[in-house]
Amino acid sequence: MITCVKKLSITGVRVLSFLVNSFEKLFLSQDTFFKITILIFSLVLSNLFFEVQSSYALKPTPSLSVSLLSASNIELHSSDILSKPNHAVTLPMYLNVKTNNPTGTGTYVDVEKTAFTDIHDSSNTSSINMISSGVGVEHLADFAENTFAGSFDCEIEHPEREPEEWDPLDLASGSVHDTHYGISSGNETLGNNICFAIGIKLGHNLPTGTYQNKVIFSTVTNEYPTEVNLIKGEDFRNIVWRLAPTRDIKHFERSSVAPPEGVNAVHLEVDETSDYPFLGWVDEARETFYYYTEAEKIYLNPDCKSMFASVDYEKIDLTPFDSSKVTSTYDMFSNLYGTKEIDFSKFNTSNVTNMGRMFYKNSTPKLNLSNFDTRNVIYMNAMFMEAWGIEELNLSSFDTSNVWFMGNMFKNTHKLKNLDVHHFNTQKVKHMQYMFYGSGATSLDLSHFDTSKVEDMSKMFAEMANITELDLSNFDTSNVKDMSRMFDHTAELRTLDLSNFNTSKVTDFSKMFANEYINKLERIYVKQDFDTSAGTDFTNIFTGRTNLRGGNGSFLPDPSTADKTWLRIDDPANGHPGYFTRKV
User: Largest Cα–Cα distance of the chain, in whole Å?
Assistant: First the structure.
């Protein structure tokens, strides 16, 4: 660590050296003036420089400069204050801070003394005192006589506006320095302007004298943790593959020491934005991929697509990585058959928009995603598709209010018996095809699903082997166009509540309720006949449903012969047999 400290002291000359006659009488005709402030700057580059090893660190040399845009020495005659309304004056001071430090700066303001005192007459014990510690004053007019305070509530563009929110200042020699102005990111070209004002209110009882105090500005760069930014996820994975062509790697670990000499270590960082390298290598004897960096922060690339795909580490510890910049985790943990644990406890997903295929064909038994922030996610399609080995899945934190795509989301999650999605907000979802296809869930609470924008529900519940009943009475299907095979091969399903289904836009009804093997479906509840006016395909709607009966007992010996007319409430008395039961 290299620290550079630069100090600059500036003293000015007398601005006013004449007297106003009326004050000669008041101050016994002595030659007096009121010397308000001298500005002293302390510039500190703090935690901004870092050691450079070889030629890896390519960031520019850190810089910091402060310029005074106002007078360095301010002297006023007492009349300049007492002639003002309320006998008070505001003295703004302007600075410009330039730095390339990405985390910005803090500028601290202190005073040398708690009072303006006479610098020429030691027998004059009168002073202009700072307002009481811990007590702020809203308006300058509310100051007590012969007091002063400071405020950042001023603007270089509007010097005429009187500041508010006046506060006492800390002593430069003290240990507490609370009065400061923070800049969150640096600007090396134009800099950032800072305005600070001293407010003073006088009384006529102040004896003649030359009263002085010093205001001290100290600008310090904010702490800057060194960082390394990783390459794209897919590039990361491909390099690992090249290091271990057989892909026989079981462990993913951070090394506390640099790679041994002679080891084939590769760079996995983005040079232009990294302070240190990120080196990776494979120890075949230990079946381990090691990585090493001296950077304090390891940022995952915004595009983490396929980063760990098809590399069967037994455990993936993500806690050393900062994922706050990640926008895509598409396919990130797919095709993992030997992974037993993934630590997501510090995984930040607040900026992720694409989680498609994130766990495709992932067999990790337990996935605790309870800390996932998914408020910005749009794509969740195939997120857990064919993740056959998942037995426990915690989605309790999922905010799906911006998701458009949920197609294939839980397709073929055969071992997942308990699936809690009751809190899902589906107000923007357009695609739900195959969403629960082949899921092992024994029950589903979809009572809060808003399906008003969904256009495709094909195969949505098909192949669900354990589900016994489905209550979809709240479903708004007014925009759905495809319901083909929606409930196909739901072997254990006994009842269906479709009481609010609107099928006016559905074109494909093929195999909607079909089942060729085990058949237990007995009742389908509706409130009205299906609207089939837009339909073009009605093939095998009820094929195999030999136990299904209409509300008044109607059925066909061979359900595969049922045409679209059977998508109605059973009314054999009027010559309108159907497979539906009216819900009262």
Answer: 123
Q: Which residues, other chains included, contact 179 with Cβ-Cβ below 8 Å and sequence gap of 6+?
A: 108, 109, 110, 150, 152, 167, 169, 170
Residue 58 near residue 180, CB atoms below 8 Å: no
DSSP states of 134-179: T--BS-GGGSPTTEEEEES---TT-TTSPP--BB--EETTSS----
Contact 496, 523 (CB under 8 A): yes
The structure tokens listed for 400 are 């799906």
Give, in degrees to the nearest 5, the angle at Cα 488 between 427 and 565: 90
For 473-482, letters b (16+ CB in 10 Å) and e give bebebebbbb
Residue that wins the pLDDT comparison between 556 and 22? 556
Structure tokens that stand for 570 in this block: 């059973």
The tokens describing 584, both together, are 């009262």
pLDDT 10s digits, 227-271:
999 999 999 999 999 998 777 899 999 999 999 999 999 999 998
Cα–Cα separations (whole angstroms), residue 403 to 389, 427, 433, 472: 25, 8, 14, 20
Q: At residue 137, what are phi and psi to the nearest 5 degrees? A: -125, 130
Q: Which two tokens stand for residue 574?
A: 């009027």
Identify the pLDDT of residue 231: 98
Q: Which of 4-13, 99-108, 110-119, 558-567 has the highest mean pLDDT?
A: 558-567
Q: Is the pLDDT of residue 29 over 60?
A: no
Radius of gyration of the chain (CA): 37
214 contacts: CB under 8 Å, gap ≥ 6:
37, 38, 39, 40, 111, 112, 113, 172
Q: Tell me the three state secondary structure of residue 565.
A: helix
500: Cβ contacts below 8 Å, ≥ 6 apart:
472, 473, 474, 475, 476, 477, 527
Q: Indicate the pairing of strand 34-45 with strand 4-9.
A: antiparallel
133/115 Cα distance (integer angstroms):
13
- Cα(93)–Cα(87) distance, rounded to whole angstroms? 20
CA–CA separation, 65 and 212 (whole Å): 27
Residue 246: which residues within 8 A CB-CB, separation 6 or more? none
Q: Hey, how many other C-beta atoms are within 10 angstroms of the C-beta on 359?
A: 27
Classify residue 564 by its DSSP letter. G
| Rounded Cα–Cα distance for residues 262 and 250 (Å) | 22
Q: If we measure between CA atoms, which residue out of 564, 572, 571, 569 comes closest to residue 580?
A: 569
Q: Among 412, 425, 471, which residue's Cα sits nearest to residue 444? A: 471
Q: Express each pLDDT in 147-185 by its tens digit.
A: 999 999 999 999 889 999 999 999 988 888 888 899 888
Whose CA is closest to 534, among 502, 569, 560?
A: 502
pTM of the model: 0.73
The answer to whether 334 touches 358, Cβ cutoff 8 Å, is: yes
